[in-house]
TrEMBL record:
Entry keyword Membrane: no
Family, per entry: Belongs to the peptidase S8 family.
Superkingdom of origin: Eukaryota
Lineage per the UniProt record: Eukaryota, Fungi, Dikarya, Ascomycota, Pezizomycotina
One Pfam match: Peptidase_S8
GO molecular function: serine-type endopeptidase activity
Protein name: Peptidase S8/S53 domain-containing protein
Amino acid sequence: MDNLLSSIYDYVDPFDAVEVARGTFKPVRIAILDSGFDPQHPFLKTLDQRLDPRIKEAQSFVQQTASHDIQDEIGHGTHALGLLLNIATCAEIYIARIAHRETLDRNTYDDIAKAINHAVNEWKVDIISMSFGIREYNEPMKTAISNALHSQTLLFAAASNDGANLGRAFPAKYPSVFCIHSTDGNGNPSAFNPTADDKDVNFSLLGEQVSSHWPIGRNGHNEPVKAMSGTSVATPIAAGLAAAILSFVRQQEQHMPPGGELPLGPWLKDVHSMDEVLKSMVRQRRGAGYDYITPHSLFDRKSTREQVYDRIKDIRRHLYD
């Protein structure tokens, strides 16, 4: 994964808690809706054994659990959190525990809707990562997602892992939600992806054999790192990439004098704007049907920060030409 995303690190400054506390910089906020996380994981601790300061808040929305019961009983949430922290180095992370077992049921749907509403209304997040999918319509979830989109929150969801047997799952198939598919390390589509939709964009990112944090001892795995595969793995990578793009723009605009061109930061919060920026990084494999995102095509290491910023400005300008 580092090879895929390493070019971004040269353009996005790391998280600065002092600058955030002073109010001189507004970090991107991401909510991750998953199985919670392991707060005792060694990779989530600082040198003085405090929790990583980028993890701002965690809350359980699982029925019949206390709100502070955020312990990951599956492992997936900890894995996804590790990916986000690795990619979105300048973002604040908010964790919503919405599951305590791998299979979601109808009792979980209301919990998910409450978590989305809380992330938007209370945490004021910019991005929500949802590494799950269901196969039936749920009105509370639909309403929560619609309200989140109306609030200009960018939503990323896993396409599904059922291959050609089934299509995209909900909420990934909901209009204006970024539906994320998986590839191997060479950009080849994963066999478990749903069939590409020829009437829509089919964003894909690395989702096979991706190593990240894992609760030690969970499910018989006694190491702090585990490799996982799935569109649910590619989803936090995509959400983290969007956060990195938004962080880069905010950092650039932090040092610009007022009164110039309209800033890109607010523009990027619109789903169609972020969609265009992600499309600018796509490389299509002939006959594959999926839109493989290559971050180095925007953050190419040969360009200055100003040149990368100007490329994003050009995307906005061409969108309205």
